[in-house]
Request: fold
Amino acid sequence: MLQQLAQLVVNGLITGTILALTGVGATLVFGIQRIANFAHGEYLTFGAYVGLFLNVDARQDLAVATAGAIAATALLALGLHYAVLRPLRRLGLVATSLVTVGIGLMLRDVVFMVAGPNIRQLNINQMVVFDLKLVRISPGQLAAVAMTIVIVPAVAYFLARTPIGKSMRAVADNRDLAAISGVNVDRIGTYVWLLAGGLAGVGGVMFAVVQGTFDPNLGFQVLLLIFTTVVLGGIGSAYGALAAGFILGLAMEVSTWGGFAGGLDPRFKPVLAFLALIGLLLCRPQGLFGKARVL
Amino acid sequence: MGLFNPAFWTFVAAIAGIYAIMALGLYVQFSLAGLPNFGHVAFMAVAAYTMAILVVRYATPLLLAATAGIAASVCLAFIMGLPALRLRSDYLAIATVAGSEIIRYLALNLPDFTGGPIGSIGLLGPGDIATYNHDWQAFLDKAKGVIEPLFGRIASRDLAMAVVVWAAAFALIFIGWVLERSPWGRVLKAIREDETAAMAVGKNIVAFKMQALVLGAILGGLAGLLLAWEIGVFNPDDYQPTLTFYAYLILILGGMNRIWAIPLGSVLFSLLYTGTRFLNFYPLSLFDSGSRAFLRLFLVGLLLVAFMAFRPEGLLGNRHQLLLEK
Reply:
């Protein structure tokens, strides 16, 4: 029983990392660009398939493939910003949401057409399991843990210590105040897409290695979980999203623990998360940690 | 199937009519009341499942089961109304799409209740094939008898379906048109344009929004029932969020705030959607038929973006009454 709990905690931390990283990108885009990006999931899909191409077709190392996925997805997000979203920023909230829905459909179906609808996997041995007494870890999970150890501290450092990271948090928090303090809001708006795209790229690869197999619907399936992370952490709050990702990942996994009134049927994990999303939007739109203010 | 097969085009016509009713429901919620419901598909799913379960498991008469289906979507509208009446528009979009995904996940994961991933065909459990549209086919046979003098030899069950659906669509659009021009419709538009002003002249905003949501749910539920009868079997994957965005594209194609443009939008959409299968000349012949299904969805996305960018009022719309600014 305890072993099961430990296993669930490990799984939850891994899912949590992915949600935390992608959530940071999505929440900063939400805060800075005022865009609810319904295409964010497809950025993950794109990253996963770039990783797949480099790792399997071009026979590169997983680390190289991940770096390639980060770079390619960051450029994709930047390109879409310049080509579509920036010219259309005069549109209102709903129209922009519909535009991102359209972008998401296009991206997903381009991946479907180019890579095919088949289930794919990265070049990772799925057959072995590392038994660490208390928990068992697959090589895919190990790869995800390695990425976590590198990337989460880097992102935290970037947000806390670098001028661009601080400016991003400032603009997301209060655009006008940041602007009169001398932050170039327009330039930060461009950088945030690079950050969000890069993090979505790594998130996509991590999902691909953790799940083992995936198809072009990978990103769309996690879009609402990313939104849940964003809302849970407080829209626009980068640290909030970091924390919320881990909380959500852990909560979803641990809720299935048998010692917990028999545990929730794992099939209903997403339902639980989406109910939490709607409930939070209704009762605490400022998130778990935020102060109430007019949104 | 050939380009000149009338049976195929009759099917397309029936689907287009059903989509028109679906889009009309969204029109009431989105174009009139300004509620960006991204989970419209949930009304269709709930109505179809309720109807099918009642018919298959409890041998309920079709009319009663259909009424119960619509009642179920109305109940869902009241539940959805909770967030719909309090949230800012983009949060509402997120909440409603999450709501529709909850419905789909539940349908997928409660196999004893809904038939699970295989859908309506599994409603009686494994090994027993469940059908729910026997009575509807009988009704269509009767309708076919009625239209026979008009259409002669080409009258068929499918044609009867198309006639029934389009008659319903035009009747409902006419009712919608009357409602839009009534004091009730003007209040909804006032709320859409300026909520505070509408409140200041003493209008009960919550009640009006709720009425729009419920009316849209009735129309969505009806479209869900007709679609279920037309396609004969359904499963949870038929109720992906994409279907909601078909309805948005239909509204945008015709004209975001022109109720009589809905038939045009749904016909154009259906031609685009089914017509792509005939685009087998170069360079599109490079795609095999499986990929062309994805090409269709790609085009849906492209048109959504392109219309938003270049002609947000749609083909026949009126630029002065646009609710996309907010």
